[in-house]
Design brief:
With 358 residues, the chain is an alpha+beta fold. The protein contains 10 helices and 9 strands. The chain is 61% helix and 12% strand. Helix 3 packs antiparallel against helix 4, helix 3 packs parallel to helix 5 and helix 6 runs antiparallel to helix 7.
Length: 358
């Protein structure tokens, strides 16, 4: 766990400790309420009813009852909220129709076994029907609350994400207005500069042409929602060619992608900000330079991307998103368009790996 994360914000198998604390308080409340209800109701019982119930032992068994319920609830909570997070609520409700009777049956058998093991009393005969009805009702109540809470959290995250996207869009529009230039005028300037370069400096002309192509692709990216993967990689390669002129032999690049994936459609300008981040924050400070690896493959009907470097790496991976707009914009685009996460992990033997799937 991240030591900088507050204790109650840390997660245990995907569930926040503060949520588990609220969960524990919820159980203590209902156990106490059950105690009170039985105690008050017992005043109207006759001696025979008290003897049948074995009242003192039954009161002790209430705590055991809710401990077993809590133990059985936690894995179901983890399954629905963590493992099956992307399932629709309709599918989860159908799953509950299977889990509810299992929960009741398993709880009843464990509860009765535990009571008999330690000598506590429990309902017997026809009265044991209450040990089916009440746990079923309690199951529906607690998971109704859990799903309502989870829906509220998801909705708040959605509102926050939409707000961040609006902020990013506004900043982008302002930046575009500040730097607005007629693209054709810009291309003409590039051509003029290229024409003024002496023929013997053919390499310089080539670099100017590649820079012109980068601007042309960026203009296209602002006008279309998706481009073929081949075009995005061509743009990335031109960008890396310019970076190689700066780093010389200090920068090594490896691209791994199968040819049949080149026609896949992806959002433009998706990879370049990630590669630029790896070069700027991972490799540029190293005297010996390093290697950038781009790996693209398809698995389970999704296109997977991995950009790794052999740079200095990142210790606080959450704080990276606060340092620049490149990673943040890409993160927000992935969340908004594909509900996909931008994952940062340590590369081996050193450096950073950025991965996502669409």
């Amino acid at each position: 766990m991240d030591t900088k994360t507050p204790f109650f914000k840390k997660r245990l198998l995907g569930i926040k400790i503060e949520e588990l604390a609220i969960f524990a308080v919820f159980y203590l409340f209902w156990a106490f309420a059950y105690h009170v209800a039985i105690t008050v109701n017992s005043r109207s019982w006759n001696e025979g009813e008290r003897a049948i119930l074995d009242f003192a032992e039954f009161m002790n068994s209430v705590g055991l009852d809710y401990i077993i319920k809590a133990i059985l609830t936690y894995p179901i909570w983890w399954l629905l909220i963590r493992k099956l997070k992307k399932w629709t609520y309709t599918k989860k409700i159908i799953l509950h129709l299977v889990l509810l009777p299992l929960f009741v049956i398993i709880w009843q058998q464990l509860y009765y076994f535990a009571c008999e093991l330690v000598g506590f009393g429990h309902l017997r005969g026809p009265a044991s029907a209450w040990d089916i009805y009440i746990p079923a009702l309690f199951y529906a109540l607690q998971f109704g609350i859990i799903h309502s809470y989870n829906y509220y959290i998801e909705n708040q995250q959605k509102i926050r994400l939409e707000g961040e996207l609006r902020t990013v869009a506004l900043k982008s529009e302002l930046s575009a207005l500040k730097a607005q230039l007629n693209p054709h005028f810009l291309y003409n300037i590039f051509n003029t500069i290229s024409a003024s370069v002496p023929p013997k400096n053919e390499k310089t002309r080539h670099l100017i042409a590649e820079l012109s192509d980068l601007f042309r692709y960026q203009l296209k990216a602002s006008q279309v929602e998706k481009v073929p993967l081949s075009e995005e990689l061509e743009f990335v390669n031109k960008y890396l060619d310019l970076e190689k002129e700066r780093f010389q032999e200090r920068l090594e690049v490896e691209v791994s992608v199968e040819k049949h994936l080149m026609s896949e459609m992806i959002p433009p300008m998706l990879l370049q900000p990630l590669i630029e981040n790896s070069i700027k924050h991972g490799l540029s400070s190293l005297i010996e330079g390093g290697k950038i690896s781009i790996n693209i493959f398809k698995k389970n009907e999704k296109l997977h991307f991995e950009i790794s470097d052999t740079g200095i790496g990142v210790k606080d991976k959450e704080a990276v998103f606060d340092k620049g707009i490149g990673l943040t914009n890409t993160k927000l685009r992935l969340e908004k368009m594909y509900q996909s996460r931008l994952n940062l992990s340590d590369n081996m033997p050193k450096g950073l790996k950025i991965s996502f799937a669409i």
